[in-house]
Amino acid sequence: MEFVRRNYLNSFSGNNGCNQIMGNLKGLTNTDLQFATINETRMACKEMKLSSTFLTLLRETNQYKITKLNLTLMDSNGKVLLLFKKID
To answer: In the sheet where 20-26 sits, what is the strand order?
Structure first.
């Protein structure tokens, strides 16, 4: 799965393992992050449950932290929802 933030637009894009995703961010601070809108392409995939779960977790995100090469997305209670590792 891929996640790319576009600084100049306060938007993001990526891939959830099946579909392309894109949208806008809001409430972005040094610790807070919310996905204002999330759109996706509608390809028929074997793992639709995975795609759906991924989008649900993005919508539940309220906080984040970056450590070394990792981006961690968390809910409002600090529970880890998703962990991304930067790769080249």
So the answer is: 2-6, 11-15, 20-26, 34-40
